[in-house]
Structure of Methenyltetrahydrofolate cyclohydrolase:
Amino acid sequence: MQGTLALSWRILANKSFSSSSMTPLVCLDRPDIWCPAPSPSEVSSHLTHDYNEHTAAEINGRSIANEIKATLATQVSNMKNSINKVPGLGVILVGKRKDSRTFVRIKKKACEQVGIASVVTELPDDCTESEVLDAVSMLNHNESIHGILVQLPLPNHLCEEKIINSVKVEKDVDGFHPVNMGNLAMRGREPLFIPCASLGCIEVLNRCSVEILGKKAVVIGRSMITGLPTSLLLQRHHATVSVVHSFTKNPEEITCEADILVSDVGVPNLVRSHWLKPGVVVIDMGSTLVKNSSDVCGDVCYEEAMHKASAITPVPGGVGPVTISMLLSNTLEAAKRAYQWTQKS
Ligand SMILES: NC(=O)C1=CN([C@@H]2O[C@H](COP(=O)(O)OP(=O)(O)OC[C@H]3O[C@@H](n4cnc5c(N)ncnc54)[C@H](OP(=O)(O)O)[C@@H]3O)[C@@H](O)[C@H]2O)C=CC1
Ligand SMILES: Nc1nc(=O)c2c([nH]1)NC[C@@H]1CN(c3ccc(C(=O)N[C@@H](CCC(=O)O)C(=O)O)cc3)C=[N+]21
């Protein structure tokens, strides 16, 4: 087992960017994000390792996100200089949920960092469905808003389906509109936007030179926000994907086959050591707020996984910040399309 771990770590650290020969999935112009191969030094700069080969490399999502944000900030500034426009994100926040308010605050701050304008429309917990639909409609018609995000979950009395369907497909930077999700699921079709957490997952794997093509990937969770689009996107990158959910019997028998394990559940410490194959790359998307604290907790028992995996994203500081940078990237793409502006090389 130790041999396997040592080998997989060496592969991870030394391999050149294996996905560079792959056609980018999205027809988005994502220079410097999907395309170029990171140099070995760039790869290792996102991985911290204590030089003990029997523990996993920790993937530094904050440094990946900072790199992406620096690229986006340059492009936003170029757009401003060339056409005197900046991308705009409209967020609708319903109610007082602490986690939702935190996530919206993080998104707003990230927009400021790269020069994207953001407006947050706040509605009370007991607002009516037509008030939310009106708020979406205002943003749909606002020419300085290029991306719209309705923070989920919504209070139970509101119909999530109806509200998501009302977002203009061209402004659906979350990628949750059925047209975008449907196109993601259908081979040969290109969605205008892919959900940010799924993009974040692939971005982390790409930037750490983890090969996806031909690998066995297991996704735990099948929600619209994370699990479902992540399994679809991993398939587009030619992984063989299995999906585990709340009705799966003996999930550990499936997860322990995975070369890449993605967990999108929201149950702290669900994934234990015996769920993992030695050398697996673990992407922990779980982000649960710990009760009576501002700490967040992932789905994977980190201390146990450290001794089994070859690389792992921590929580916080793993895939979460990369997800946020993908929202910024989608918003910039939306603005580029709206203004038919392309970055001159
Ligand atoms: N880091 C990031 O970038 C992001 C993190 N998140 C986080 O991801 C987590 C999941 O969010 P979200 O997808 O919205 O949550 P949902 O509650 O919508 O979905 C949870 C999924 O996990 C499955 N599930 C629940 N319990 C188990 C179990 N014991 N074993 C296996 N599967 C189980 C459910 O199965 P079933 O379908 O059968 O009900 C469902 O598919 C949250 O912590 C959220 O905060 C979300 C978005 C981005
Ligand atoms: N319309 C909509 N779109 C979403 O994309 C969406 C949503 N609703 N509802 C909730 C989930 C959750 N989600 C996260 C994004 C970033 C972090 C993130 O950046 N987490 C930080 C920690 C955050 C903290 O410190 O509280 C980290 O992991 O380092 C977490 C979770 C997006 N979601």
